[in-house]
Amino acid sequence: MVDAWLPFGKTEVCARIPTRNYLGTIEPKEKPEVMDARAEVERALREPIGTKRLGEIAEPGKTAAIVVDDTTRATPSYLMIPPLLDALVQAGVREKDMTVIFGCGAHRAVRQDEMEKLVGKDTPERVEVISHDCTFEDNVHLGRTSFGTEVYVNKVFAEADVRILTGDVGLHYYAGYGGSRKSVLPGISGAETIQNNHAMLLDAKARTGILEGNPVHEDMLEAAKLAEVDFILNIVVNSKRALVKALAGDLEKAFIEGVKIVDEMYKVSIERRADIVVTSPGGYPLDIDLYQAYKAVDSALEAVKQGGVIVLVAECPEGHGSEVFYEWMTRFKRPKDMEKEIKRRFRLGGHKAYYLAKALKKAKIFLVSVMPDYYAVNGFRLKTAKTVNDAMRGAFDIAGSKAKVWAMPHGNLTFPIMKS
User: Fold this and answer.
1) What pLDDT was estimated at residue 290?
2) Which active-site residues does the annotation give?
3) Residue-number span of the structural domain to which 334 is assigned
4) I need a surface site. Which of 11, 72, 302, 357 has the fewest CB within 10 A?
5) Same domain, 12 and 48
């Protein structure tokens, strides 16, 4: 037997797979953690790509707004924010003139008890820290993209003299990649802006790892340019969420350098698809709810055969994560019906239902979580099991005793690519 360990919340669980069935583990091609994370961030700030240094952009008397990822992302913003604030102070910006904005998009606000973990213990004491609200009527209109998206963004960010984005660069299942422009749209955008952008996910090029011709990405980039972003600080992390590289500077140029590193690490070639793929999003907070954990399913679809089985190991302590996600799964029975609704009146959360419904056309999905069966089975049409090995037995019952198995412990990060 082979023991395949998969992250589950803040712990791990072990899937026991017969050796004769085991194809292997699809894992990132890890790059080592930098020796000194702060020194690496400071180096990036000293050596910006495609822009002036922050000290030449910021000046005494100016205000600064910095966007950071919210609690649904595993980004270690606490590595970036303290040196970034120090760099602004050195440039003459007063701490009372700085604001850190959690780019919540359409997610809930960050709770007070979560802030220190995300941006560092001292940050809320040094500067004002707020959560973006996509429904806030004071969001500022900046213009319209060539895709017809009316761009509304956070007022504090729009009115700041120096506008900075932070985040991590990683694969994203319809924006192509996370990072850079995504901190503006959806991060600090209004609901209407997010909805119009995300409705373009039906496009054939709105896929993982694709930027060129991807309307979701290109619309996001146009929105970020309308927001006149001055500087970005993005990082690339390994599967342990340890810093591999920091990149600072221009909205596009610094981002593309991050994309190159992500491709090296997380696009993984495979020679065949399996009958069963057992996967985890990567543990907390990537499996905080089914809405976030779905991304592991999207990656697993690249590695599973048509009619195969996916075992999703995701704690989901906050349940499904979206009332609209749940409503669409119960209201619409076919992906085609969801497509029509997305074109007619897109609603955030509906897109996740569309992806899950499409996934269920290709594979049966077992969920190992703490979410009640009532929702998982009746709402989301998933099979459930109390333990990963119960789920594996169910998967073998469906796929047969000779079924071949891939394990993918970091499904939210890893993207399998079939060799041609």
Assistant:
1) 96
2) 107, 172
3) 2-28+267-418
4) 11
5) no
